Every structure is written in C-alpha cells, then in structure tokens.
Amino acid sequence: MEARVTDERESGGATVRRLQLGAHLRALRRAAGFTRDQAGYQIRGSESKISRMELGRVSFKERDVVDLLKLYGVEDPAEHRRVLTMAREANEPSWWHAYGDVLDTWFQNYLDLEQAAELIRTYEIQFVPGLLQTDAYARAVIRLGHDNAAPEEIDRRAKLRMARKQVLHRQDAPRLWAVLDEAVLRRPIGGRAVLREQIQSLIDLCDSPNVRIQVMPFDSGGHAAAGGAFSILRFPHAKLPDVVYIEHLTSGLYLERREEVDHYAAAIGRLFIEAEHPSRTPTFLRKILAELNGS
Fold first, then answer.
1. 230-278 confidence digits (pLDDT tens)
2. Statement: the pTM of the whole predicted model exceeds 0.85
C-alpha cells in the first residue's frame, strides 16, 4: 500500500491528470478545427461540457474520450491507449481519499496540485505554511478552525497535514519559497512552547536545499502583498499553466487566467526583494527564539 501512495504522490493525483488530459483534448480539437459546440454534439453533450472537460473540472467517460479522438482524427492505437490511460488515472481517487471524512472537498484539488508542483511560492500573514508546520503547531491551528471537533478528528486532520509534508522529502521534491510576515512568528499559536518548537524547526529547514524562507519584518512598512496570503504553483508538466491559490475560511479560490497569475507573480517577486534576504533568516529566527526563551 505504501508503494501505491508514493506512486500516486509522484504522479500528482487526479486533478493534475484531468488538467493534462483536458489541455491535450483542447489542443487536438483546435488542431482539427472544431468548435466546442461541434465537439459537444459529437458526445451527446454541450459546449459547456467540453469547456469543463478541457479545463479539467469534471471526470472523463471513456466513451466520450474515444468519440472525441475519432472526431479529431486521431487514429494511432498507441495514442488511443495513452489517452485512455490518462482518463482512467484522472478518475482514480488520490492517496488522501482515505482522509475524505475530514477533508473539505474544495481543498482536495489543491492537494493534487501541491503534490504535482515543481515550485511553490507562498506568502503567509497568519500561520506558518502547512508544509512547514510541526505536528504540535498543526494541531493548534486545526483546533482554531474546528473548535468543536472531537480529539479523533483533530488527530486525523493532523496526520493528513503531516502526510502532506512528505512531498518535501521526495527524490523529485518541489522547491518551496516562502515569505512569512513577522506576525506569523510572533503569534503564539498553541502557546509559547509550541511556537518555540516551530521556530526551531524553521531554523533547521533553512538548511534544506529545496526550501527557502524569508521574513517580512514589521519595520519594513507597507509592501507589495499587503492584501493577504496566497500561493503560486508551477508544474513540470507540459501545457499546465501556473495556478494561484487563495484560501478562504470555507473555500479556496483558484486563479489561472494569465493576467491574474502575472499580477500575483509580480507581487511575490517584489516580496522576495523587499523581505529580509534568505541568508539572514536563521539569524532573524534565532533572535525571536531567544526572546521566547527569555520571556
């Protein structure tokens, strides 16, 4: 079972397969000169169904995929087998499906994208990013959002979050570049002991070759991303554009339009310049840790 989990993580999960397959079908349709409306008619559907398929927002029926390949003039049996394999993988549950009882539906797509990314750039103003949280800190954050949850549910959610972190230890681990507002490091989530452990963990992570952490200090004044936290994910897969993810209290927002992504990419680029240099992060963190130890 563990081998299967590893394979699914490295493949990126169903969401990425849907995005890949959708982009491939869109390219085939355009090359063949068909409109979405014409393609929809071929599979007894509509223009909007083709749109959802090409955007990777629905599961794929093999019969629909076969009919579209025929319509687009794809006759190579090997190509048919490859595309149908992608369709089957796109419909398979990801490894975190086992945590479905505590996993919000709107967050499942993000987990797929996170596991498939080659670069994750993130800015946080309230909490340490999930991929960098210690177990105790994660449990404290989870309790804040689920104050009426039973201990068993808290435990399940924490185990899911710790399982997510394994992506940073894979052979093909993504690069994680995080900018933390100083408030993140001053807010005693879970108490001072928990915060001390978390900050020490961040200090240790500064030595990781695929993790870069910067701090936006209070004395920097205003900055490019004062509006709130966000993440930008980049993928090694062909035809998959960068995605901006913004998490709300009860939902997540995914931005894929080029102009929107470019706006956030420019903002985080300025943050990288305005924040303390990564080489100074351990010193900054040790200073806060010393203050906590002395209080």
1. 999 999 876 788 999 998 877 889 998 899 999 999 999 999 999 999 9
2. no
pLDDT in tens, 163-210: 999 999 988 899 999 999 999 999 999 999 999 999 999 999 999 999
Give domain 98-294's CATH number out of 3.40.50, 3.30.870, 2.40.128, 1.10.150.
Answer: 3.30.870
What are the b/e assignments for 186-225, b being 16+ CB within 10 Å?
A: eeebbeeebbeebbebbbebeeeebbbbbbbeeeeeebbb
What residue spans define the domains of the chain?
2-91, 98-294
- Tell me the CATH architecture of domain 2-91: Orthogonal Bundle (1.10)
Where are the alpha helices (H) located in the chain, listed in sequence order?
A: 2-11, 14-32, 36-42, 47-54, 62-71, 77-91, 105-116, 135-145, 151-164, 182-186, 192-205, 258-274, 281-294
